[in-house]
Amino acid sequence: MRPSLRRWVVLSVVNYAAKPRSVVCSALSAHSTVVPRLLCQQRSHSTKVFESKMAASTREALRSNGIIPDVLDDFEPKYTLKVTYPSTKTEINLGDHISTKQAHDPPVYEFHPVSPTEGTEPNKAYSLVLTDPDAKSRQEPIWSEFCHWVVGNASNPRTSGGKSGGTSLEKYMPPSPPPGTGDHRYVFVLLKGDASNVGKLKAPKERKQWGYGKQRHGVRQWASEHGLEVVGANFFFAQHD
Question: Residue ranges of region Disordered (predicted)?
Fold first, then answer.
């Protein structure tokens, strides 16, 4: 091979599983940096497209299963939300069917921004809740929504690597659907608000209907009262075992 012939080695890694936005792109050349820049830009563009598709698929799953509008108003997901029950090694993936035994102990969670610019705002705090919009049943939601968990001041993903953290405002209550009521949707909702309001967050007055005394009341009203924005969600199905 002639010495004057340019040789390029391009390395690109996209970690889709844990952090879809993580991209490493580099190039080696003895003559120019223009092509490497272009290649990195192309990789960055393709990653943004992938992230956009992830957000769209989350939104579509929430819509197709009635979580939008039963639990949440329509929104554009800004974070991916990964939830895992470590005691049973069960990971929740947008509509999985699991047993109540798999969800008996409190889960751990991670959340990562879809956009590189998201999560960079100062003085922001996050909350995570778990709610059941199908209590007593989806056909007869007389206890809906039922609050199963509220975590305030969840760790900022930029400083914690997205790992679990925060203060439990309402202790985790595992799913326990009544016999004969079919599948229940259990919805994790990630919320964002001003850090100055963290100390003002209050647990619902009671778990049933989140203390509002009306069917289908819960996360939407609680978030509005505390000035919180819905930025991510995940969910699973479970029925009486």
Answer: 154-180
